[in-house]
Automatic annotation (TrEMBL):
Belongs to the peptidase S41A family. Keywords: Hydrolase, Protease, Serine protease. Coiled coil: none annotated. SMART domains: PDZ (SM00228), TSPc (SM00245). Residues 89-157 form the PDZ domain. GO terms for molecular function: endopeptidase activity; serine-type peptidase activity. GO terms for biological process: proteolysis; signal transduction. One of its GO terms (cellular component) is outer membrane-bounded periplasmic space. This is Peptidase S41.
Amino acid sequence: MPPRKRSSGLLIILAVVLLGGFSFGNFSRCAQADSTKEYQELDLFTDVLALVRKSYVEEVPLKDLIYGAINGMLASLDPHSSFLPPDMYQEMKIDTRGEFGGLGIEITIRNGILTIVSPIEDTPAFRAGLQAGDEIVKIEDRMTKNMTIMDAVKLMRGKPGTDITISVMREEFDKPKEFTLTREIIKVRSVKARTLEDGYGYIRLVQFQERTADDLRAALKQIHKENPDGLAGLILDLRNNPGGLLDQAVAVSDVFLSEGLIVYTEGRDQNSHLRFSARGNGSEADYPLVVLINGGSASASEIVAGALQDHKRGIVMGTPSFGKGSVQTIIPLGDDSGLRLTTARYYTPSGRSIQAQGIQPDIEVRSATLTEKAEGFAFREEDLAKHFESSTEDNGKTADFELDEESRKDYQLMRALDLLKGWRILKNLDRQAA
């Protein structure tokens, strides 16, 4: 019996070793097959490259062929991954500093069509009336079908003072409409701020650049100085903000949040799994906040709106945002060129992916143009002969700030201001009831 036990145990051990050997052998052959297939596919590429260099009707520099192959490879991935030749790579770095030559529009590829994400405020594109969602069908005499973003950018940028004509299709147009724009140096001031009325501040973020968070803090400091009795509310305007630097979106959110997750990213590479949280350094007081968004609010704008919405720090008002929930990493390459590669998706603190969905406003308010209408003549008590004068003095404070005409015509802005005023009234009623 004991010998049988030992031999049966030996048979089991042999069986495991043999099975392990066969399994390992199959794995090796599979890995070898995969490797062979990959080399065959690379051979296909080098064969085509060699044939083009040898037999194409004209001689083409090898660098142009390599750049073309890289562009084609990245174009097959997604609308935001792209190759940046040395000149474009330098221009991209200039963009984040807020000064460049061109028209002043952020563009993307949507459903295969070159589309405006948003015009940048105070630029030729903005002044000409171009809008978020406009489809650029032609640039000068070149159709944009199958055109890459980088090719479009090259065509539209140029020497300041020169004209360029683009053809745009919009939902309400029967046919494409031509816009002739004059290129100029685009200097983007990323933060604009003012006091709308006594106690109510307004800050517009145009883009997220290298100094946006610092400029925001400086603007808030000025608004607080203008309102020494404290802010009754603030409007943070992210409309037509195409985004920009991720770290600046995090820093801007951190200004209004004292704690908690702001955004997190996930991708295939473990290094792309990142989490960004509020540090609470220099956070603003917990006054009422309304965040304005629209279809031109993209990327970094959506990070800020999503974080403030998830933490219930403010009311998001307007129309659904653009829906760009992917992260692009800029990777410098050896010949002073660069690679703009989509490496992750980002998520709001509650786990929402914004990709292709956008941020949904808490209160949807569509854009409209307000015009004042004369009410006609109406009698009031003060118009009657021998009316009594008030026996009490008017101790009300005269407002030091007055809304300009442009703000009065901005329907979404007026609704945001109305919401803040209603917030203040309800708060006072609660105090009286207590």
